[in-house]
Structures are given as structure tokens and as C-alpha cells.
Design a protein that fits this description.
Blueprint lengths: L5 E5 L5 H14 L4 H22 L2 E10 L2 E10 L7 H4 L13 H8 L2 E7 L3 E9 L13 E8 L9 E8 L2 E9 L4 H16 L5 H11 L6 E9 L4 E7 L3 E6 L2 E4 L18 E4 L5 E5 L20 H12 L6 E8 L1
Antiparallel strand pairs: 1-2, 2-3, 3-5, 4-5, 6-15, 7-8, 8-9, 9-10, 10-13, 11-12, 11-14, 14-15
Helix pairs in contact: 1-2, 2-4, 5-6
Length: 337
């Protein structure tokens, strides 16, 4: 199943019924029972109506996933409204700011398998919801030591995404690929998917050699840009290298550093001499990798306590504030725990 998110800008109530029907049908396609699909309807209704009532609109992103025999729907709800002063208080059933029954956020939390919310006064709010096919399903944790989230969205009007990402796990460490096919649409999608397949096939341990394998594997496509970040548990180091404009940063507390890629296009032309960057792999680091569908002038430290939040919240907050809307967009956030 495609791992990109469908995106809808919600500015008035005219789209709400359509979005509810789309997600309801997706739930049934994924094997949700009619009762669970109805509970999903309630969650979507609360999220979308709150966007209209309290934020004058916003954006809803959703996708269905099938992983390890489990069927799930993930939803991000983003707005630039006035924000929430006291998230804990407003989460309580019975609390209302509009003389209603006050079951909104409390019902979303109760009916979903995972619900996360982050808000700042004057900045807006991001919400993340995961709905499993069964209400009592536990959330499968990411592999020990690395918790991540990724968000990919098509260029407006396109049916496929020219960006892509993939993570390979092993007993010795893990490897991250983030790529962006040139342009957008079907040909860009083909290029990045060939890049992912070459990344999956590569047996190299060094990011440079992996990029060379990708370069050879995508020569029949229009080409792509990509960065590969590898972690080796034995050496306790990151090994990072990129060709083209994938932005890569590592944060730890107030410290952060951007790792500059080389000029070039995988599949067409890459430098003869390439060096990777070796960085210590440390607890509490946050790695952010994103395509040029997002602006690069951002700093996590500008958002209050954001580094304490989950990768879902961090990724969606960066997307909300920095989405250009002129290309496909992908942002991947990983936390070392």
C-alpha cells in the first residue's frame, strides 16, 4: 500500500461530508468492522468540525497502512489557529468552550489507539491519530533505540509522489534513505521507487557505496537526489552522505548541525570524489531529513518543548510551518532513545 498521505485543505464545511465518506470507505477496505468504521467517522467529524469552529480551517492528512498483519488509519490534523492554553484541561470529557456537550478531544482519545496533540498560543495545533481495525489493539513500538515518523505528500493535483523514504534495520544498526525524483508526477515517482529498490538491494555498509549502488540502479530513470544515513551500533557512529538537496540535520538539546550534500543527480552525474560525514551516535539525538518540498529556514528550538514530543508531532509541526506547496514533500524525523 502507498505510504503517502492524502491531503485536504478544509476552509468550510463543504468538504467535511466528502472526507468522512472517503475515510469511511478506506476503513471498510482495510477490513474494519462497520462498528469500528462508525467510530472512525466520529473521530473524523470531531477533527474536521473543530478546524472550522476554532481555527477557521486547516489541513487534514490521512493514509491507510497494512503492516505486520495489522490494518490502521493514520490522520494528521493541522491548523494555524489561536492555539490551546491548557491541553490537559481541554482533553477532559465535559469541557467545552462553545456551550456544547464537550466530548470532542476526549472522544477522539477514547476511540483511537493513539492520540497526540501539540499546541502553542498564537501558533496553532497539530494532532496525530492512529486508528487500528480493533479498538483494543496495542501500538507496535518502533525497534529499540530508534523511534521515527515520516510524512510524504504528493504535489497538488498529482496521484503519485516523487519523494520517497525507506529504513533498513539489522542487528548491527540501521540505514535511512530519503530521496526526491526530479520534478514531480509519474516519472519522478518511478525514479525514486527505483532508488528505494537499489537501496534495498545494496549490501554496502558505507553511505558512499550505497549511493553509488543507487546511482547505477536508476540510470534508466530521469534521476533523483538522495541522502543516506547509516548507524553502526559497534562503532556508535552515524555515516552520512548525500547527493542533491535533501536537507539533513541532527539536534541534541540546543545544539544542531546541518550536513551539506554534494551537488549532482543520482543516475545522471555524481562527483568522482565523495566523502561521508562521521558523527557520534548518541542518546537523545533527533535526526530530521526532508526534501525541498519544505523550506529550510526552521529551528526546532523556536517551538516550545518540541524536542520532548514524539516524532509524529515534530514531523507534522515542521510540515505545517514549512510546506511550500510547489512540489512533493517528505519529512522524516527520528529520535534516538
Amino acid at each position: 500500500m502507498d505510504n503517502t498521505f492524502s491531503s485536504y485543505k478544509i476552509e468550510d464545511r463543504s468538504l467535511i461530508a466528502f472526507i468522512k465518506r472517503e475515510i469511511h470507505n478506506l476503513a471498510l477496505q482495510l477490513g474494519f468492522s462497520p462498528h469500528r468504521a462508525a467510530e472512525t467517522d466520529i473521530i473524523v467529524a470531531e477533527l474536521t468540525s473543530n478546524l472550522i469552529k476554532y481555527a477557521d480551517g486547516g489541513e487534514l492528512l490521512y493514509r491507510g497502512t497494512q503492516m505486520q498483519g495489522r490494518n490502521e488509519i493514520e490522520i494528521f490534523c493541522l491548523d494555524n489557529g489561536v492555539g490551546i492554553d491548557n491541553v490537559v484541561k481541554i482533553m477532559s470529557d465535559g469541557y467545552s468552550t462553545s456551550n456544547t456537550l464537550g466530548h470532542g478531544l476526549g472522544s477522539i482519545k477514547r476511540l483511537s489507539n493513539d492520540f497526540q496533540i501539540y499546541s502553542m498560543k498564537g501558533w496553532g495545533t497539530v494532532q496525530y491519530v492512529k486508528i487500528c481495525e480493533k479498538a483494543d489493539m496495542d501500538i507496535i513500538p518502533n525497534p529499540a533505540g530508534f523511534n521515527y515518523s515520516a510524512l510524504s505528500v504528493n504535489y497538488p493535483g498529482e496521484n503519485v509522489c516523487g519523494d520517497g523514504y525507506y529504513i533498513k534495520q539489522s542487528a548491527n544498526g540501521f540505514k535511512i534513505f530519503v530521496g526526491d525524483g526530479l520534478g514531480h508526477g509519474v516519472n519522478a515517482h518511478e525514479a525514486v521507487q527505483l532508488g528505494i529498490k537499489a537501496f534495498q538491494r545494496s549490501t554496502a555498509e558505507d553511505s558512499i557505496e550505497i549511493l553509488r549502488d543507487i546511482h547505477e540502479g536508476v540510470k534508466k530513470s530521469r534521476g533523483l537526489v538522495a541522502t543516506v544515513a547509516c548507524v553502526d551500533y559497534k562503532s556508535q557512529n552515524w555515516n552520512i552522505c548525500g547527493i542533491g538537496n535533501i536537507n539533513t540535520r541532527i539536534f541534541r538539546g540546543l545544539e544542531n548541525k546541518t550536513y551539506s550534500p554534494y551537488n549532482g543527480i543520482l543516475g545522471l552525474n555524481i562527483p568522482r570524489t565523495i566523502n561521508s560525514t562521521i558523527v557520534p551516535y548518541l542518546k537523545h539525538q533527533i535526526i530530521v531529513m526532508h526534501s525541498d518540498g519544505l523550506r529550510t529556514r526552521w529551528n526546532l528550538n523556536d517551538m516550545t518543548s518540541i524536542i520532548k514530543q514524539s516524532p509524529h508531532v515534530i514531523a507534522s509541526s515542521l510540515y505545517k510551518d514549512n510546506m511550500r506547496g510547489t512540489d512533493d514533500a517528505t519529512v522524516l524525523v527520528g529520535k534516538i532513545t
